[in-house]
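Practice problem: predict the structure.
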Amino acid sequence: MSARRTLWTRATALTLPRLLLVPPFGWAIVSERAEFAAVIFWLAVGSDFADGWVARRYGEATPLGGAIDHAADATFVSVGCCALASGGVLPAALAPLIVLAFVQYAADSRAFAAQGLRPSRLGRWNGIAYYAIVAVPIMRDTLGLGWPGPGLVLALGWLLVVATLLSMLDRFRWLVRGRRARDSRA
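Answer:
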């Protein structure tokens, strides 16, 4: 596949609009327009499911496409977490940690390109939980529910902060072990 064709695939065409949804998503949350935020959220989730399916279905899965998909996910959930943190719904530490975890993941991907990146179970679950922690208060407010209450959502946000730190520490330990192993062979 040529470089141009590798970037412009059907899957990427589904991923890139997710990035365009980021500013209105953040605005909708900060402006307390839960219904609008919910519509944008579900469009983004649909895009996230569809891009992977399309990439596999049409044989268009590429490392660049995967990186763009992960970057779109990280950007979308980080802005959602940041907007929710501005209203005290989530811990302010969560959004920057998501960005740092993504940067670490991207750097590790380059460092271990020849060996392949060791999948992180905790990191994968964290990625799903980032979407969930953004969805919960938006859907609660959209549907006019009283549960889960603000204290529980905030506590779950702090639990996700801890899980993100543990995942980053695990990935860092793995990187150090890999370097030591390469140095001992040299």
